[in-house]
Design brief:
With 366 residues, the protein is α/β, with parallel strands linked by helices. It is 41% helix and 21% strand. A hairpin with a 5-residue loop joins strand 11 and strand 12. The structure holds nicotinamide-adenine-dinucleotide. Nicotinamide-adenine-dinucleotide binds next to loops.
């Protein structure tokens, strides 16, 4: 059996609660994957601020760089809301993403049929949602300089810079086209090219890269139209590629269409160790109550198994197990399902793990 090092960053709020289920799921796959796992846990976010007065320690970043994969829960807590930017829990996320060089963030949004009634949109509108948002993660306005608040002419002025180089756009474009080749063959590139110079370059590079992928079609869409199309006709999208800021907003919008933000996984890939985390935050309103939905974290394990270990078969088994548990009527409180059985984090985790084991034992989904 090969040994894999997994760095585990539970974080704040419901982070530790959902990470526990993710770790248990991965551990349960040891035999099927023919791997043993060495899980090492580190503090991040508010938990790290309380213990070490920084959002993340350099030693943690080094350990994550050495890992085969990093699992992150979520960071953030209201007690740090008034901290300066460099002492906020969220600062750890940006630092970690930059340090790992994970420029390609994948956020699939797929409607599980049993959750069609949990979507805030009408069932006929959400039917068939199956999209992959490819978000550039280490550039754009979240990292651009100059940035900050400074006093100018007697008043405070806040400033951020949206900046993308051709190389940064080109590499995320290639990722988007390659994922589209494995899916339904269409890329929608989202920008604000009617106003922003950075978007005009984005559009030009995307068009250029498209010529290398004749089997994939490309369309361009302005971000304001995309926000509207996501609630009007979300099933039209296959792969959506966009920059850091637009991707942050649109992927959250896409996520809620599928029933709950508690369902959405993500993978961040690049040059270094890959990072897997749920899309949701630390949900301080339900932390410690046992109500957190662990499925986004568990679906992130499916992405890990697929993208880092190359085991599409086992990833499919996890996704099928999640679907089967939901179809059996089990749901956490965030999923507004009628006539189902309301269960908590631990029970949902156990049901999915048991179902995956059952599927792998009989060879279903493999
Ligand atoms: P959130 O995602 O934490 O919560 C939004 C709503 O969704 C809340 O009502 C919450 O209870 C619910 N929710 C989220 N995940 C859930 C789950 N797994 N199961 C059940 N319900 C779930 O977003 P927010 O409230 O805007 O932010 C809370 C904190 O999290 C803030 O400090 C924010 O900065 C941070 N945050 C962190 C990340 C991250 O770590 N990647 C992402 C977003 C927000």
């Amino acid at each position: 059996m090969t040994k894999k090092k997994i760095a585990v960053l539970p974080g704040d709020g419901i982070g530790p609660e959902v990470v526990k289920q993710g770790v248990s799921l991965l551990d349960s796959l040891s035999e099927a994957l023919d791997m043993t796992f060495e899980f090492s846990e580190y503090l991040i976010g508010g938990a790290c601020l309380n213990a070490h007065a920084v959002p993340v320690q350099d030693s943690t970043i080094s350990a994550c760089r050495q890992a085969d994969a990093v699992l992150l829960g979520a960071v953030g807590s209201p007690e740090f809301d008034n901290n300066p930017p460099h002492l906020r829990p969220e600062k750890a996320l940006l630092g970690m993403r930059a340090a790992l060089g994970v420029y390609c963030n994948l956020r699939p949004a797929k409607l599980y049929q049993s959750l069609a009634s949990a979507s805030p949109l009408k069932p006929e509108i959400v039917a068939g949602i199956d999209m992959l948002v490819v978000r550039e993660l280490t550039g754009g306005i979240y990292f651009g300089e100059p940035a900050g608040i400074a006093s100018e002419n007697g008043e405070d002025v806040g400033r951020n810079t949206m900046i993308y180089s051709e190389g940064e756009i080109r590499r995320i474009a290639h990722q988007a086209f390659q994922f589209a080749q494995k899916r339904r063959g269409h890329v929608t590139s989202v920008d604000k090219a009617n106003v922003l110079s950075v978007s005009q370059l984005w559009r030009k590079v995307l068009t250029d890269v498209a010529s290398e992928y004749p089997d994939v079609t490309l369309s361009h869409m302005l971000v304001d139209n995309c926000a509207m199309q996501l609630v009007r006709n979300p099933a039209q999208f296959d792969v959506v590629v966009t920059g850091n800021l637009f991707g942050d907003i649109l992927s959250d919008e896409a996520s809620v269409l599928t029933g709950s933000i508690g369902m959405l996984p993500s993978a961040s890939l690049g040059d270094g160790a890959p990072l897997y985390e749920p899309v949701h935050g630390s949900a301080p309103d339900i932390a410690g109550t046992g109500k957190a939905n662990p499925l986004a974290m568990m679906a992130s394990i499916a992405m890990l198994v697929q993208y880092t270990f190359g085991r599409t078969d086992i990833a499919a088994a996890i996704e099928e197990a999640i679907e089967a548990v939901l179809e059996a009527g089990y749901h956490t409180a965030d999923l507004q399902v009628q006539d189902g059985t309301l269960i908590g984090t631990e029970e949902m985790g156990r049901l999915v793990i048991d179902k995956v084991a059952e599927m792998l034992a009989v060879g279903a989904g493999v």
